Amino acid sequence: MQRLCNAWSPRLSTAPSQWIRSYAQAADGVTKPSTRVIASIILQRSPVILPKLTPMERYYYAYKDEIDRREAAPFPTEFNFKKGTLGERDWKLREEAHKELQKQGWQALLERDPIVSGSPWPVTVAELQSGGEANLAQANATAIPTKADTAALAPRETEADCAKDSKSLERALAQTLYLLVKKPRDQHTWQFPQGGVEGDELLHEAAYRELREECGDEMNVWIMGRGPVGHYSYDYPAEHAQHIKAAQAKVFFVKGFIYAGQARVDNEEVVDFAWVTKDEISTYVDPQYWEAVKDLL
User: Fold this and answer.
1) Domain Nudix hydrolase: where (predicted)?
2) Per-residue pLDDT tens for 181-218?
């Protein structure tokens, strides 16, 4: 097995370079108008938090929670709580309130479930201290937790969301963000970081090099695999084709993930950048470019 791996590894490492150079010449050896091979990276930041539950999902999880509760074995209070303690009173009051809700039917029970309502079960600190029985009407009116009773949850919308700061990675936490860069030209300004493949570079090597050249080396990036996830071609304008000695470009996209850091553009090849969601990409790039990349995201 070791001999087989050693025999194949040189061929695997040199195949991509031969494959790339094949675009400049036809299979029969006749030279045709050259094609410039470009490597581009679709750099993304994965979601940080779970997406917000839809009403249907909230009711589903509340229903499942109630089914699990009813099918569970009886809870041994004498084993888990010392008699007369606040913990025992807390549990008893919650059970009494829950039984009151069960009498009103599934609809009332599910609507009052913490998963659906966002509030805890109807038990207050005052009821715990007095030791009185839970009253459903009073509990529903006083069930909103205070800062003294519960820990405050961080908001789903951050300051970057409120400020609409497209350069911040602390926005759209429940969605994937993609890095777009702006080129200093009049047309086709926004795109993913990209650049021409040099020498015997592999596609993922060229894409990573261009990312560092255009956006700096302050990002901790992982390239997902060595092969491209897609490509598209376009023709150069006549004056530009003469300058770079290529009639068309073929752009190969590789995917990458950012784990830390931030982009720092060089203000030469790239003058601006933005972290955008999939829905926002179409508002930045040209329609032709969007049609080419939308299914790769």
Assistant:
1) 145-297
2) 999 988 889 999 999 999 899 999 999 999 999 999 99
Q: H/E/C letters for each residue in 115-137?
A: HHHCCCCCCCHHHHHHCCCCCHH
Q: Which residues 6+ apart lie within 8 Å of 37 measured at CB? A: 20, 23, 196, 197, 249, 250, 252
- The owner of tokens 């752009």 is 251
Q: Which residue has the higher pLDDT, 120 or 12?
A: 120
User: In the structure encoding, which two tokens stand for residue 273, read together?
Assistant: 């950048």
**Can you give the residue range of the structural domain that contains 114?**
55-141
Contact (CB, 8 A) for 114 and 123 = no
Residues 182 and 286 in one domain: yes
**Neighbouring C-beta atoms of residue 173, cutoff 10 Å:** 20
How many domains are contained in the chain? Answer: 2
State the residue for tokens 């009886």.
74
Is 166 within the bounds of a domain?
A: no
Q: 241 Cβ partners below 8 Å, 6+ apart?
A: 235, 247
pLDDT digits (tens, 9 = 90+) for 259-291: 999 999 988 889 999 999 999 999 999 999 999
Confirm whether 162 is domain-assigned. no
Per-residue pLDDT reduced to its tens digit, 136-167 = 444 444 444 444 455 667 888 999 999 999 99
CA atoms lying within 13 Å on the CB side of residue 153: 7
Residues 95 and 28 in one domain: no
Q: Please indicate, yes or no, if residue 6 is contained in any of the structural domains.
A: yes
- Could you give the CA distance from residue 204 to residue 194 in angstroms, rounded to a whole number? 11
Helix (H) or strand (E) holding 139: helix 136-141
For residues 134 and 122, the answer to whether their CB atoms sit within 8 Å is yes
Among 141, 161, 186, give the residue marking a domain's end: 141
CATH code of the domain in which 201 resides: 3.90.79.10
Q: What is the pTM of this model?
A: 0.70
